[in-house]
Queue: 3 jobs
Job 1
Amino acid sequence: MKTFTLVLLPLFLVCLFPINRPDLFQQELTVATPEASKIVTGADQVSAYLPYLKGKRIGMVVNQTSIIGNKPSVDSLVSLGINIVAVFGPEHGFRGNASNGAKVDDAVDEKTGIPIISLYGKNKKPTKEQLANIDLMVFDIQDVGCRFYTYINTLNHVMEACAEHGKELMILDRPNPNGFIIDGPILEKHLYSGIGMHPIPITHGCTIAEFAQMINGEGWGGLPGKDLCKLKIIRVANYTHDTPYTLPILPSPNLNTQQSIMLYPSTCWFEGTIISQGRGTYMPFTVLGAPALKGIYPFSFKPVSIKGMSETPLHQNEDCFGLDLRKYDTNIFRKTRQLNLQWLMELYKAYPDKARFFDTSYSKQIGNFNFRSGNEALQKQIIAGVSEKEIRKSWEPGLSAYKQMRKKYLLYP
């Protein structure tokens, strides 16, 4: 039997308030580390929070990315004597093996015997009854910094429930691999949905803890006025928003490479079009194409049903022709600080039946293009052949206003 060993880091508890706003009810715990250049996630700084968990009944919002060292955090904390009474699982489930958009049912974890409560099934946020036996909630999920990636919605729902029922929320923070880019149109309120519920651009440039502070500070979701969520944050050590970060655990079935994670903000909005993003292959979000582009592009791929990834993909069992981005140099995003609009403009121009390009009524796509882009203007601009420069100009002043507002909630340079 393998034994579980933890190397505890030196403990220096420092209470900080990055924002001069006591109404955020935040106490922050940080840890100094001996290796000044090494990123250390909040979860890996065990000595910073283990004493705070002792003697409490803990609920954990986690998935397969929630690790301490190379072990699942739930398993690790149970082995250290922490009383975890419930696990709350987001989209893709606790162990990360459910397909995108698939309903996830409640269950019992076979390994630990802990009840698993789905937050992507019959209810999106914990109920009063589900929180009754919990003293402290812990949120530890790897995000990728994109508006339509649903974990920030899960965070908001958990914060609402904690605020409503008087529960404190500890966030074990993790780096944002796309934290250096803040770009895209601001989501308009009439387009709020399950793939976007905050007035933010496509890439928001925050870690989960920073975004939690923003939810509190801006009164989003069900957190107006006095009903703020009490936060306790374990910061990432030695991290900046410009620090390159390769995820040690892939965050969801269709973000299965670092390349897909970096391309995702610029390729996911194709889900609101007739163009396949590679779901139904083992290279999702790194290829783009459709059967009608045959003869225009030489590269091809064929989506098929893959259990746990994409079971009914767009253009299933059809040859799709288009762009192969698997070797695209994603460092260009770090240089430009912008999403790639050219692929969207190029494929629309190349598509023979333009009336069908944004029509998803024939497929099982999740929402239409406007829900992805966040406004109704971008689709019309692409159809009208508006230049990229003019499109980007139309995102103002909203984008600049967001960037300014974001500064109030930053924990890292």
Note: Residues 1-34, 96-103 have pLDDT under 50 and may be disordered.
Job 2
Amino acid sequence: MQTFQVLIIGSGFGGQCAAVNLLKAGISDFRLLERRDFFGGTWCQNTYPGAAVDVPSPLYSLSFAPYPWTQMFAEQAELQRYTEHVVEQFGLRDKVELEANVEAIEWDDANKRWAVHVGSKGTFYAQFLINATGPLSQPVIPRFDGQDLFQGKTFHTNHWDHSYDYCGKRVAIIGSGASAAQIIPAIAPEVGHLHVFQRSAHWVLPRADRRFGRFQRWLLGLKPAYKLLRWMIYWQFETRVIAFKYSRPAIHLVQQHALRFLKRQVPDPELRRKLTPDFTIGCKRVIVSSTLYPALARPNVTLHSREQAIAALDASGINTLDGRHIDVDLIVWSTGYDATDGVISYPVTGKNGTRLKDVWAQYPRAYLGTSLPDFPNLFIVTGPNTGIGHTSALFIIESQMNYILGCIRALKQQGLRSIEVRPAAERTYTEMIHREMERTVWKSGGCNSWYQSKSGHVIAMFPGFSFSYHRLTRTLKPADHILS
């Protein structure tokens, strides 16, 4: 029987952070279950051209694992090296089970443990279960008439096919969000012609990137210097939430800055019109790039706006709403992920047969974005309303670990087996989250974004300062929980 004290589903930064925190707490009886055949998450999977982080690297890293970054905004290859650095430094490689695709989990109340069904690898059991699959793990590809007729090459940005040579080819990118904004400048100089299909324009701000010299990299390897730089960047970025939630004049100033940047980089008035958003900045994810606009202005790049959207596909390419036919060799789906309603992709059954699918039928919700009534000893890393639009997601993940380890410690200290949040506590927390959300640009900025679930509730984001979330997770509130 494959039985552990803790099972972690996913081996990206969330899973790695959970694993290291367990080791620091003296818990070594755990396994990471990874569905792929390699260790690591987003930055090992997403290898598309131009892939890079849009948060400064010293902040977009784990506080306990300093690293001598080569540049302020690390590119994918370096982020993958950082992942491998964390894995080796903390001896995690022997703790992972690869090609372990979780198909379903269910709570065994008699034995106070989770049964995790992992395909051909059988069933694993654990007292505690930490879901760290992340919100950006389920790619979405929209359906169009004639899609199966297309005879060219297609793939999603999440599964970039490096065996395909796009040089000199006619390429269509469907989508214009964060991934597309990185791919477009990377491949535009090499393709024959690039067609970008944009459902809506995004706000873009310049990317203040820089390379670190040898001495600076040496400093970054020292914990005191690393910690100081992290906090300087953190507080600089933390102030952004003032504009997103508390100050309309502040967000107006940021939007004017973005408009000036657009005018400076795109002299053509018609292209500039297509690239001007019709919603308040911040309502959707802000793109940070100094190369996107010049790439879109290239003579071999055509931007198709909403009135020229895709009507259907056929064997040779794309038919648009305005009656055009565009021959293409490659279609790249840069259409994002199911980051709200599909944050957990496998069936979850808790106490008394309670199904997570039913609990979340209206919209996903969780106490501290981490735990749910009727689902004892289950913790969701980067669960509902834990996303952060102004600083590093890893800060939130590390904050969640305070709560998760607090729950585990409370049970060990009292010799008990299970902990679950009380329904009233979850309800009070969720009502607070959505009450506070009304004041944010994510709710009132005039856009439809992937931050929202099908219900219209903003599910992806936390409506406030990240240090406020950290304070909420710092100390376990026993009165909010049922321990047995």
Note: The first strand starts at residue 2 and ends at 9.
Job 3
Amino acid sequence: MEANDTKRLLEFIVENSPSAVIVVDKNGIIQKTNQRHHEESGFSEEELKGKHINTLIENRIISGSCSLRVIETKRPVLMEQIYKGSPHMLKALPLTDENGEVEYVISYILDISEKYNLISELEKTKFENKKYSIELLQARKELRKNNQIVFRSTRMRDLLERAEKIAVTDSTVLITGESGSGKGALAKYIHAYSSRSEESFLSINCGAIPENLVESELFGYEKGAFSGAQTSGKQGIFEYADKGTIFLDEIGDMPYPLQVKLLNVLQDKEFYKIGATVPTKVNVRIIAATNADLAQKIRENTFRSDLFYRLNVLSLHVPPLRQRPEDIPVLTEHFRKKINDRYNMNKSISPAVIKTLCEMHWPGNIRQLENFIERIMLFSRSDTVEVSDLDEANGSISLCDSEALADSLKQSTLKEAAQQREKELLIEGLKTFKTATALAKHLGVHQSTISRKLKKYGIW
């Protein structure tokens, strides 16, 4: 290769190097730079050629010269250096003559500010992850704290010990018990003590949603699946709850056709949205609850036996309040504090009232007890609720008056008596809460349930 070709080749290599390049002679005089160096330093080759390398130091382009160090040591130098305010990696190589004396030094300069940014981001991420882990741990503790169940009875202690053992598994759970006994609270308790506690807990009342909407609420639909569907489609409860827990309350009221779809989710961990041709994979734990006799529903062909067996992998039964009266005092105190906080009050409840509450009949269980305690605290004119306040709070809708209940039963069937009491409760409730939404929230049921019953009894 001729000298001119060699020179052209070297020029091409230097100019197209991904690194900034600067060449100095044995005296530290700049002989050549490339376009990348121009971009990095802001000085062109014409401006630097023939000047001493210290020019870059004087103009604060570099903080020190590795080229001068190579001239001094006659050895390659690799170092990090601040180059025009940014960190750079410099590699300087000596070109020596036959006597080993340095003739030229070629320096390659690579911007490593991105490296430092990545390190900084990594450190920041580590810190945030550590902070997140601490917050997550705290949140998990708070979740467990907020989902503690108030009790004193041996029955509930045994139930919760079993629930904690069940929680660490990933099996489906069926919770049975009377209305208002605390099945929903137990489901949250299981979720809080499970490996899914950091994920979502979604609850749906199978009896509160109109039958024609249950499927779309649970499983969602594709865009254009039916007339009136959202153009973007819709995610269902199962998709939202992926990796978390779904609580299906009143499972006995799930429409029969949908029970097959739920069975498929339990078996195959996938489902089809309405209008979909491809299944959606999902990883959820299902906790179901019912106050109905599912065995009777199976005999009546309104509930599938295969679904029952799939749901009933692990089962828990919440005892009614009448079977654990020793829980009433601690529940009363718990609700007293809660209601005081809600209404910014500071009322107490006398021991005589608590004794009376323990002797009363609670067909509505804990939900009824809480509502009744709220009522007596709101009706009480003094700072301490006394026995005399009970009758006034009960009024005409006392579900605890066993004599009144007995009189009703003498003149009607159980169903008729229950409906009459329910109607009285709704009429009295509207006097205080004014709207169906507020009354539903107070009674712990869905607003559509209250609206339906108000129409049923001709109250609205």
Note: Residues 322-400 form a domain with the Helicase, Ruva Protein; domain 3 fold (CATH 1.10.8.60).
